[in-house]
């Protein structure tokens, strides 16, 4: 079958899509770049904000029309939205043939075969309260059989270290759609990373919704996140090891020390604050105060020299006052983030916040606060990236740059405008031959914007 797969969610979803592609290829299917002639269209969906779900509904509307017009097509909804809406999806959109929760993706080849026979196929994850069932499930079978040669980039790969989330921030749908927090055994993770490194990947990003809460008990020993970092950092050929996303609670000094001491663990931290106001943090059930977050950033800067930090914020959470908003702006300034993702609050059905609080901040105020924080972060991002001008950075080249605006002069003959990342996850744009893709080079930084640095290629390393 020719299968078209569109991915709408976070890095965890992107990894899931990659694993799905590997399974489908192994089952003899072809992955195609356009839905126009596909036999099956699959959407790997996200439920985190309403906007992400609306996109899927509009795709399904178009697919329904194509099918009504006589087109033979299998339509599948995978991932978080499939889990959130379950059977309702098929009631609302009878054109949907496959509904597959994020923990059931290994079944997809079978489900496609079913759908090809004209049978709807539905596989949803176990109830998150049934922890025994969750632990019994083969949580990482699909991770272990991945195709190490075909990751998103030839030098980089994501590796899941845990599934689910137990934090229950009041605004968030993730604990309901991704299930209970379960950490993978360290042996499995190490085995997967070794295979990827043997296949030529030199930069591995460990994924978890609250990755620093990783803890695995088994065979009479307990592995903390810092132990896992130490274990993986020993793998020969692994040049960069990163992890996202961290939660500000449970961020103990042993992790920061591991970042400082293990040479291949990158000095990069993505640790969302969500708000700078204690009152809002409390209603969000984040589990820390503004003071705790400030303290974490201070500890990170003290223990990990040169650490670059990224954050997330939500504006317009129920009851948020102008003073709360100022507290968030103040936190942005204090943290000196490399970049910050800023979202407008979107009530998600079934979450504690949607049940408890009115979505009482009007859209215009949300927009204004959103623009205000983006403006503040622009200044901070610019200052942060400018502080590298005149310095030399190590860059893993990702490929041709999509930021055509960044270099004032076109590249010389035989060269392309390339883009890569530093250990601190900064984007660096410079001219060089395309053959440098997936290699490590040194770049002299000559200029900067709020989101990137520009520079001159120094020497290969
Ligand atoms: N597990 C990660 C992030 C998960 S969702 C963490 O805890 O950091 C990614 C980001 O989406 C969150 O950090 C938050 O800023 C945002 N987000 C989550 N739910 C949201 C909602 N209902 N409305 C707006 N933004 C939301
Ligand atoms: Fe959502 Fe909070 Fe869990 Fe992150 S920690 S996934 S924001 S509930
Ligand atoms: Fe990721 Fe969206 Fe699901 S952020 S975990 S794809 S709800």
Automatic annotation (TrEMBL):
Chain spans, region Disordered: 400-422
CDD domains in UniProt: Radical_SAM
Name this protein carries in UniProt: TRAM domain-containing protein
Matching NCBIfam families: miaB-methiolase, MiaB/RimO family radical SAM methylthiotransferase
The organism of origin for this protein: marine sediment metagenome
Xref: SMART domains: Elp3 (SM00729)
Domain TRAM: from-to ranges: 386-459
Cofactor: [4Fe-4S] cluster
Domain Radical SAM core: 151-383
MTTase N-terminal domain segment(s): 1-117
Database matches in PANTHER family: CDK5 REGULATORY SUBUNIT-ASSOCIATED PROTEIN 1, MITOCHONDRIAL TRNA METHYLTHIOTRANSFERASE CDK5RAP1
Molecular-function annotations in GO: 4 iron, 4 sulfur cluster binding; metal ion binding; tRNA-2-methylthio-N(6)-dimethylallyladenosine(37) synthase activity
Gene Ontology, cellular component aspect: cytosol
Keyword annotations of the record: 4Fe-4S, Iron, Iron-sulfur, Metal-binding, S-adenosyl-L-methionine
């Amino acid at each position: 079958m020719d299968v078209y797969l569109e991915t709408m969610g976070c890095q965890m979803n992107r990894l899931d899509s990659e694993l799905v592609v590997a399974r489908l290829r192994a089952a003899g299917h072809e992955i195609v770049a356009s839905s126009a002639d596909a036999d099956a269209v699959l959407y790997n969906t996200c439920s985190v904000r309403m906007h992400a779900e609306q996109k899927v509904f509009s795709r399904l509307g178009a697919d329904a029309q194509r099918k009504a017009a006589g087109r033979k097509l299998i339509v599948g909804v995978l991932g978080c939205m499939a889990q959130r809406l379950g059977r309702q999806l098929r009631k609302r959109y009878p054109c949907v043939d496959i509904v597959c929760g994020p923990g059931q993706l290994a079944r997809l080849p079978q489900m496609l075969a079913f759908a090809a026979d004209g049978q709807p196929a539905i596989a949803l994850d176990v109830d998150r309260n049934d922890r025994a069932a969750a632990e019994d499930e083969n949580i990482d079978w699909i991770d272990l059989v991945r195709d190490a040669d075909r990751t998103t980039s030839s030098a980089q790969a994501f590796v899941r270290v845990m599934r689910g989330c137990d934090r229950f921030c009041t605004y968030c749908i993730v604990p309901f759609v991704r299930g209970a927090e379960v950490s993978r055994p360290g042996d499995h993770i190490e085995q997967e990373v070794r295979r990827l490194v043997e296949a030529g990947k030199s930069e591995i990003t460990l994924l978890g919704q609250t990755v620093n809460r990783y803890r695995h008990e088994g065979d009479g020993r307990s592995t903390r996140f810092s132990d896992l970092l130490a274990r993986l950092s020993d793998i020969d050929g692994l040049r960069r090891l990163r992890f996202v996303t961290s939660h500000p609670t449970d961020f103990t000094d042993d992790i920061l020390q591991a970042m400082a001491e293990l040479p291949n663990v990158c000095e990069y931290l993505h640790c969302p604050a969500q708000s700078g106001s204690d009152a809002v943090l409390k209603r969000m059930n984040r589990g820390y105060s503004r003071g705790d977050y400030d303290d974490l950033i201070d500890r990170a800067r003290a223990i990990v020299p040169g650490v670059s930090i990224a954050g997330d914020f939500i504006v317009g959470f129920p009851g948020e006052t102008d003073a709360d908003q100022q507290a968030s702006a103040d936190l942005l300034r204090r943290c000196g983030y490399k970049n910050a993702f800023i979202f407008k609050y979107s009530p998600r059905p079934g979450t504690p916040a949607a049940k408890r609080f009115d979505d009482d901040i009007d859209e215009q105020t949300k927009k204004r606060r959103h623009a205000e924080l983006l403006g503040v972060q622009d200044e901070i991002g610019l200052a942060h990236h400018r502080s590298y001008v005149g310095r030399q950075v190590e860059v893993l080249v990702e490929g041709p740059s999509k930021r055509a605006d960044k270099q004032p002069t076109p590249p010389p003959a035989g060269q392309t405008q390339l883009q890569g990342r530093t250990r601190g996850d900064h984007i660096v744009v410079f001219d060089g031959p395309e053959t440098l893709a997936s290699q490590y080079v040194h770049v002299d930084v000559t200029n900067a914007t709020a989101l990137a640095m520009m520079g001159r290629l120094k020497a290969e390393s």
